[in-house]
Amino acid sequence: MADSHFTSILATIRSGEFSDLKFVCNDKAFFVHKNIVCTQSSVLDSTIKVRLAEPVSDTISMHGFEIPTVESFVQFLYTGDYANTKQEGQEGSQQDGNVRPELLGHIHCREIASRFKVDRLMNPSRAKLEALIDKHQDSSDLRSALPAAIRLAHTVSTSQDVMDLLSASVARNIDEIMDDDLLSNISDVPEFLLAVLKHSARNASQLKTERAKRMQELKEQEQTASTIPEGSLKLPRDTKSWINNYCKMSFNAEFTDAFELICRGCHSNQDLAKIQKPKPSSPFFGAPASSRPLLFGSNKGMFGGA
User: Fold this and answer.
1) What is the pTM (predicted TM-score) of this model?
2) Which of 81, 85, 131, 181 has the fewest other C-beta atoms within 10 Å?
3) Which of 198, 177, 173 is nearest to 187 (CA)?
4) Based on the domain organization, do 265 and 175 belong to the same domain?
5) Could you tell me which residues are beta bridge partners of residue 270?
6) What highest taxon heads this organism's lineage (predicted)?
7) pLDDT digits (tens, 9 = 90+) for 15-67
C-alpha cells in the first residue's frame, strides 16, 4: 500500500497536474505545488511572496544545482525521503565503484537543503552519508572517493558535521591513505588536515586506553590463577564422586575460564579460587586447646592441673 501511494505521488509530480510552481534546472522543469514546497522552505516562501506581482512568479531558478540533486530535493519535499541518483559528469572510475557518485550526491543534497533552509532534509542527508561511509569504511572504493568528497564539501561550504564525518573516515584509514598519497589532493585545505590530525590523536588515545584496560584484565586473571591451591587442581583426578552427594553420576567435571569446576551432570560448581590451603596441624598438640580431645574428662591438663 505504501509503495503504491509513493508511486502515485511521483506520478503526480511528473505529470505536473494542478501545479502552480516549477523549478527550472538547466533544460528540465520540475512541476510542484506551492502549498507543499513553500511550507517546508522559508526561502521559497519568502521568494514567492516577494514575487507575486511579477509575471514569472511561478518559476524558481535552480541552475546552480545538478538535475539529480533537484530531483532528490523534490522527492524529499513530497515523500519525506529521497533515493540518491548519479550526478551528471560523475560517472566515476572503476576504482571508485558506486561509492563516489553516492557520496557526492548526499553532499549535494545537504547543500540544497542548506540553501533553501529545509531543516528536515539536513539530518537525513547526513545520516545517509554516515551510513554510506560506515558501510564502505574498509574499502579502497571509499578511500579513492574521499578526496573528491572533501573538496566538494569544502567548496560548497557544508556544515562542520559533514567535514567532521569525512575527516574521521580519513583518520581511521590514515595508513592506507598515506600510502596511496591521497592527501596530496587536499593539501590546500589546512583546516581539514587539522581535523584529521585531531581524530588521529583521539584514535591513538583510545587505543592506548583499551590496551591498558586489557593489560589490567590479564594481570587480574594471572593473580587469580596464582591464588588457586595446587592441590585443588588435582581434584578432578583424585575425586571419584562429586561434592554434591545427591548427584549419582560418576565424577564428570570441566574447568571454566572463571576458575570454576562444574559437574556436567548436576551443574554444581566449586570456585577453585576460594579454596583455602589447609594448615598442617598435629591432632593433639597442634590444635587449639578448645578443640583438643578430652583427656580424663577434662581439657584442664594431662594430670588434672588447675
Assistant:
1) 0.62
2) 181
3) 177
4) no
5) 261
6) Eukaryota
7) 667 788 999 999 899 999 999 999 999 999 998 888 776 666 688 999 999 99
